[in-house]
Design goal:
With 345 residues, the protein is mainly α. It contains twelve helices and four strands; from the N terminus they run H-H-E-H-H-H-H-E-E-H-H-H-H-E-H-H. It is globular. Pfam families: Tyrosinase.
Length: 345
């Protein structure tokens, strides 16, 4: 009988030797200057590619630039009304765009449209993504370099116990607000709860065969996608979750997972969408024109891994069969009663 505790420890050692350790992403305040210097020098500078980076591995300057630009397009014309039209389309069209045919390409188009707005303000800004699997056991930390930091380069922390409103950071209720359905303004709410899926859950997604795209898409849309919305809670947990700044970072990561899946082979890239001659809902754009990140309506999108050995980690994990991967998923301390069936995929 296999000793799952020892096997999980062995996987931790595999991650360690391939560079995936907690110290890879859990920094202390004294490391801030060193990280900022590293992140600035390590990123590619290709004018031919929109490079999207993991938010907590960006430099302080890059994070602040994104946040300032995001606040500009959400509060000032001529950007604000266009931004609000984009994000309010999401709840209005929810029943149509959360389907196998629409989910991936529709959200890829939305991300690019928001990114284009950001670049009207600052051409150097691209959408970051948040790889929540890197800190899944302590996802709600608020130290200096965490995503939920109250510093100008973070998204602020949890909502308060009374109103649920975020009260610190750049998106605090006294600094920023979200649009309501009737055109008013209200505070951004959060209600952090539980732990999040870890790297084994991401690895399972990448192990689907192209012929099993239906399962892959269902796993992302109805499991990974939903869980993060509900674990953040508050605004992210309601039908208008697209109003949250973290919505864009979460969906950019889902797009990266699809992109990583696609990059495994031509069959993976065009799985299901090879002959997708139907239109993205409420647009004139064909779905197949949003499949290849090398050409998304004339723009190349590149996702930069958070650290150099990220892909090597997933290569190392391929030594384990899927039954073992499923068992290791249960060792990540993540549980979600409504999603138990996905642990058997």
């Amino acid at each position: 009988m296999m000793d799952w505790k020892n096997l999980y420890c062995n996987v931790v050692w595999v991650l360690f030797f391939t560079g995936f350790t907690e110290t890879s992403y859990s920094f202390q305040q004294e490391d801030l200057l060193q990280l900022s210097t590293f992140a600035e020098s390590d990123q590619p500078r290709s004018p031919k590619c929109n490079v999207r980076k993991e938010f907590t591995f960006m430099s302080i300057a890059e994070r602040m630039r994104f946040i300032q630009t995001y606040k500009t397009i959400t509060t000032k014309e001529p950007y604000k009304s266009r931004y609000e039209a984009l994000i309010l389309d999401h709840p209005k069209l929810a029943i149509h765009i959360h389907t196998k045919k629409q989910f991936f390409p529709w959200h890829r188009l939305m991300l690019r449209n928001v990114e284009k707005l950001l670049q009207e303000v600052d051409r150097s800004v691209t959408l970051p993504y948040w790889d929540w699997s890197l800190s899944h056991l302590s996802p709600w930390r608020t130290s200096t370099l965490d995503i939920w930091s109250a510093q100008p380069w973070g998204l602020g922390g949890n909502g308060d116990d009374v109103t649920g409103c975020v009260t610190n950071g750049p998106f605090a209720r006294d600094q920023w607000g979200i649009v309501t359905g009737n055109g008013g303004r209200t505070c951004l709410e959060r209600k952090f709860n539980g732990v999040l899926p870890g790297i084994m859950t991401i690895h399972r997604a990448l192990r689907y065969e192209p012929t099993n795209f239906t399962q892959f898409e269902d796993y992302i849309r109805n499991f990974i996608h939903d869980v993060i919305h509900w674990r953040i809670g508050g605004t992210m947990g309601d039908k208008y979750g697209s109003r949250s700044p973290e919505f864009m970072l979460h969906h950019a990561f889902l797009d990266k997972i699809w992109s990583d899946f696609q990059n495994q082979s031509p069959e993976h890239k065009w799985a299901f969408f090879k002959n997708a001659d139907y239109k993205i809902y409420k647009t004139t754009i064909l779905a197949r024109n949003l499949v290849d990140n090398n050409n998304i309506l004339g723009t190349k999108i590149c996702y930069k891994d958070p650290f150099e050995s990220y892909k090597n980690t997933h290569k190392a994990l391929r030594q384990y069969d899927l039954n073992t991967v499923r068992k290791l998923m249960t060792k990540e301390a993540f549980s979600a009663p409504f999603f138990e069936s996905y642990f058997d995929h």
